[in-house]
Amino acid sequence: MSGERTAGAGAGAAADGEADVVIVGGGAAGLSLAHALTAPGAARPLSVTLVETPRRSLRPPARTWCFWQEGPSGFDEALVASWRRLRVRGRDGGVVDGELGAMRYHMLRSDTFEALVTARLTARPRVRLLTATAEAVRDVPGGAEAVCVTADGRRVTVRGRHLYDSRPARTLPPARSTLLQHFRGWFVHTSEPVFDGDVVELMDFRVPQPPHGLAFGYVLPLGPAHALVEYTQFSPTPLAGPAYTAALRHYTDEVLRLGRFTVSAVEQGVIPMTDARFPRRTGARVHRIGAVGGATRPATGYTFSAVQRQCGAVASALRAGDEDGRLPPPHRRRSLAMDAVLLRALDTGRVNGPDFFTALFRDVPTERVLRFLDGRSTWWEDLLIGFSTPVVPMLRTGAELPFLPRRPHPGPPGGGPGGG
Ligand SMILES: Cc1cc2nc3c(=O)[nH]c(=O)nc-3n(C[C@H](O)[C@H](O)[C@H](O)COP(=O)(O)OP(=O)(O)OC[C@H]3O[C@@H](n4cnc5c(N)ncnc54)[C@H](O)[C@@H]3O)c2cc1C
């Protein structure tokens, strides 16, 4: 977003700083919510002000979002690629291929998504895109406000009946278990056609394993000689930069045997995987959306789909005249409880991560695993998934969880040296 844009004829309500809804942060969650709230066809059109910071130090670098879905995603024009098969490779190289049925595994780039959604929002009435940094958000009589500063130092206060805040938090809430999903990826171009464009290598465990946690390769093929190849760990702390380079070198040269290749872009990040409780409200009318509101699935780090579900649900309610504005939980309690057991079992080393995930994808149809991760599986399917895991260590871990204290995480959400 650049400058300030107030779209459409009906924008009068927003021009004086008042809107039905104020959204702080124009990343995955903020843009998705603005998009859902202002989609054409509402019985009761809403005015929305979306505040995105101009400060480069606060804006996250462009990134790749993958998610799975049945039917149109709503952002199909922005998709880089889609696949119908996922592969998991065990430590011994054994292959488990899974079909997705009617679902597709999609890849989206955040900058393309931002451009598409911003263009759509600009064309919609009652949308104001404000480039400013929110310094404070708070309840006020009848709603909430964000006190913002523009790039030229002007103070702007925007008010709404509801405010949704997606600014990342400086610290993680206390938790019993927190691992970091940290990774670096290379967009590679090989001199020979080496990639199978039909299948995503979701978890390739043929890489050396860290002493604490687990590591795997991840390959998103974009053509016979083009792919995003990543090295990922689930472990307590990120690596120093050269260690990712060494791990990717080993994976591309020794495991994938790519031959000669060039790297056109690098992507890096850290996603906290935690059983912390994320507050969805910090005031009567101040709500939290996105990763800061707990949308990241603890056991996987996937966030994008939960953001879409949550934003879709709250937008439908507000557009139908519901004044409550509260967000539904991003994940089911049962899913969070199962994830908490898995995180703790991985953290304590009671289960072997590579063997756990390889067996899960071998014993449970991939489509069912994905529905489970979306919170769409039945309790009976969840029970079958539970029985496909190492039952004794998982039960022991589940039994001790209620007695464990929640402790503060010793560092920023992005971890230490390699934070992305
Ligand atoms: C490298 C990487 C890859 C990922 N890949 C996937 C994936 O494949 N699939 C998946 O499901 N999840 C993925 N995730 C996790 C998750 O989807 C992303 O972190 C996602 O960006 C979270 O969306 P968000 O809106 O909560 O936060 P963000 O996208 O980070 O948005 C927050 C926004 O707030 C803005 N902001 C910050 N401070 C202020 C302020 N004071 N005032 C105004 N605006 C402010 C920022 O500029 C930013 O635009 C990935 C995460 C990373 C880091």
List the helices and strands and how they pair.
Elements: E1 4-7, H1 12-15, E2 18-24, H2 28-37, E3 48-52, E4 64-70, E5 79-83, E6 85-89, E7 95-99, E8 103-109, H3 110-122, E9 127-131, E10 133-140, E11 143-149, E12 155-165, E13 178-190, E14 199-204, E15 214-223, E16 226-235, H4 241-255, E17 261-274, E18 286-288, H5 304-319, H6 333-348, H7 353-363, H8 366-373, H9 379-387, H10 391-400
Parallel strand pairs: 2-3, 2-12, 3-9, 6-14, 12-18
Antiparallel strand pairs: 1-9, 4-8, 5-8, 6-7, 10-11, 11-12, 13-16, 13-17, 14-15, 15-16
Bound molecules: flavin-adenine dinucleotide (FAD).
List keywords for this structure.
420 residues, alpha/beta, FAD/NAD(P)-binding domain, eight-stranded mixed sheet, 10 helices, 27% helix, binds flavin-adenine dinucleotide
Write a compact overview of the structure shown:
The chain has 420 residues and is an alpha/beta fold. It is built from ten helices and 18 strands.
Query: Based on CA inertia axes, which overall geometry fits?
Result: globular
> Judging by the overall fold, what is the CATH architecture of one domain?
3-Layer(bba) Sandwich
Q: What distance lies between the first and last C-alpha atoms, to the nearest angstrom?
A: 22 Å
Mind describing the biggest β-sheet?
8 strands, mixed
Radius of gyration: 22 Å
CATH topology of one domain, what is it called?
FAD/NAD(P)-binding domain
Q: Strand-residue fraction?
A: 25-35%
Contiguous low-pLDDT stretches (5 residues minimum) are: 7-16
The molecules bound to the chains, other than polymers, are:
flavin-adenine dinucleotide
Helical amount: 25-40%
> Under the CATH scheme, which class of one domain?
Alpha Beta
Number of helices: 10
Number of strands: 18
**Secondary-structure content class:** alpha/beta
